[in-house]
Write a structure and sequence with these properties.
The chain has 134 residues and is of the alpha/beta class. Helices cover 30% and strands 18% of the residues. It contains four helices and six strands; from the N terminus they run βαβαβαβαββ. The strands form two sheets. A four-stranded parallel sheet has the order 3-2-1-4, covered by helices on one side. The protein binds nicotinamide-adenine-dinucleotide.
Length: 134
């Protein structure tokens, strides 16, 4: 008997990488796995590779709180509980303290060489920390 027999699990970012490997392992251990991701085709493929009735794919953008509520309601009606949540999908935001210390070098910016703010979305990749003083 698997370690997760009868358990209801959720893996965010389950369509690839660490998440997909976790989905497979959870299923091997007997769990039902909700594979939550934004890559629908890959997510469906992962679920198709699991045993019959061992999982379901859910389109979920983890940054969307309304989508989480909808997902929670779905799980409640389908399974009534969640035993394990592997919140693997990460979203990266630059903390304000860091953006204040970076300078925008993009010529596409409305005001190049001024301090970056979170509104400086067009030139994120061109932002870099200012030269270190000696
Ligand atoms: N691989 C590493 O060495 C490493 C190291 C440190 C931390 N991490 C973290 O571990 C997690 C998984 O890493 P990985 O290498 O397997 O990444 P990956 O890119 O292979 O997989 C991430 C998965 O998350 C999904 N995803 C991205 N944004 C999403 C969103 N907003 N909502 C739902 N799903 C979303 C992607 O579609 C993808 O399927 C990430 O959070 C990553 O930052 C990875």
């Amino acid at each position: 008997m698997g370690k997760l027999e009868g358990r209801i699990t959720v893996v965010t970012g389950g369509a690839s990488g660490i998440g997909a490997a976790t989905v497979k392992r959870f299923a091997e251990e007997g769990a039902f796995v909700y594979v939550a991701d934004v890559q629908d085709e890959k997510g469906e493929e992962i679920v198709a590779g699991l045993g019959e009735g061992q999982g379901a794919y859910v389109h979920l953008d983890v940054t969307d709180s309304a989508a989480w509520q909808e997902f929670a309601a779905r799980i409640a009606s389908e399974k009534g509980k969640v035993d394990v949540l592997f919140n693997n999908a990460g979203s990266v935001t630059t903390p304000p303290s860091r953006t204040r210390r970076t300078r925008c070098t993009s010529s596409a910016s409305p005001s190049p060489s001024t301090a970056c703010t979170t509104a400086c979305a067009t030139c994120t990749t061109s932002c870099r920390p200012p030269a270190t003083r000696r």
